[in-house]
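Design request, tokens follow.
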């Protein structure tokens, strides 16, 4: 028996309290997980896990052993970091949570650029549609795109901003005339992502602020599903510009009501992480890399009409983040 491998497998089962989920996260078969835990129990001469057809739970001995295993694995990670530090390279695994908005726009470029710098780093990514669906403290870092950040005990670093835009497909506009004023939205089919205002949208013009009541025919968590429904011609939606920039560029979606200013349209892209007194070298390296990447904006991209708008410091055209000197 490879005791260290069995300890790692047991620790993952203890975290998940589910053999199949542990196997999935480890990238091994269910049978390997089952055999490893059984071999470890036989080696120790105790039962670590209670198994029934409905649930998995730790025995009292299993709880104590799990705590010891967690500390052991932390020490092993520290030892690995010492070697990595000696050769000048962070190594290990970063557990990252990211909103679907960020995960489908900038994050792949960020990870690719960082791994070119630190090729020994690996990533475990969890994608969410709503910040309420995740506990950021359970990850090494979390990227969220929120209009208003909820209270958090984590360190919250603002990276950039993106704005909402109202869009529809050419097919929908061929069937239903495009709204010429915000008030006309009330007679249109509206699709809403759950993180967007669902009862009314506010607009501002020379005459003041106007509140328009919308009646969604579709309300769903994922902004990516909403985008796909808009492309299919189901209706009009309010989405982050970073999500639809490519579609606006190629004409498969069109921006509406450009003469009216949409209120509360900004979202901030946040980097969240635990402010530990002794942050792991790999995590510190990644945080510093991300913050530095977003700090600098090419001088030629600064335009008076865009509140300091600039692309990211790489050659992708997949986002338009609005820079507002928030670093």
């Amino acid at each position: 028996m490879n005791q260290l491998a069995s300890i790692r497998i047991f620790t993952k089962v203890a975290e998940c309290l589910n053999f199949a989920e542990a196997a999935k996260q480890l990238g091994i078969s269910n049978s390997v997980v089952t055999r490893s835990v059984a071999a470890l129990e036989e080696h120790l001469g105790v039962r670590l896990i209670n198994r029934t057809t409905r649930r998995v739970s730790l025995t009292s001995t299993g709880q104590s052993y799990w705590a010891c295993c967690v500390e052991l694995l932390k020490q092993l990670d520290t030892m690995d970091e010492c070697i990595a530090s000696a050769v000048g390279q962070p190594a290990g695994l970063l557990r990252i949570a990211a909103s679907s908005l960020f995960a489908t726009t900038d994050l792949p470029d960020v990870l690719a650029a960082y791994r070119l710098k630190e090729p020994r780093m690996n990533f475990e990514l969890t994608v969410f549609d709503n910040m309420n669906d995740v506990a950021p403290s359970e990850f090494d870092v979390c990227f969220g795109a929120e209009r208003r950040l909820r209270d958090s005990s984590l360190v919250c670093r603002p990276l950039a901003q993106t704005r909402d835009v109202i869009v529809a497909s050419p097919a929908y506009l061929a069937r239903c005339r495009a709204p010429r004023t915000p008030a006309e939205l009330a007679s249109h089919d509206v699709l809403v992502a759950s993180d967007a205002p669902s009862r009314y949208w506010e607009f501002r013009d020379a005459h003041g602020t106007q509140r328009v009541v919308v009646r969604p025919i579709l309300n769903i968590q994922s902004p990516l599903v909403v985008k796909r429904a808009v492309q299919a011609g189901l209706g009009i939606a309010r989405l982050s510009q970073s999500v639809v920039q490519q579609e606006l560029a190629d004409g498969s979606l069109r921006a509406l009501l450009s003469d009216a200013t949409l209120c509360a349209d900004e979202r901030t892209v946040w980097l969240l992480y635990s402010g530990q007194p002794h942050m792991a070298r790999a995590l510190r390296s990644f945080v510093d890399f991300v913050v530095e990447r977003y700090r600098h904006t090419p001088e030629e991209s600064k335009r008076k009409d865009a509140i300091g708008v600039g692309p990211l410091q790489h050659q992708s055209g997949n986002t338009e983040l609005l820079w507002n000197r928030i670093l």
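Comment from the thread starter after seeing the answer: thanks! Residues 3-86 form a domain with the Arc Repressor Mutant, subunit A fold (CATH 1.10.10.10).
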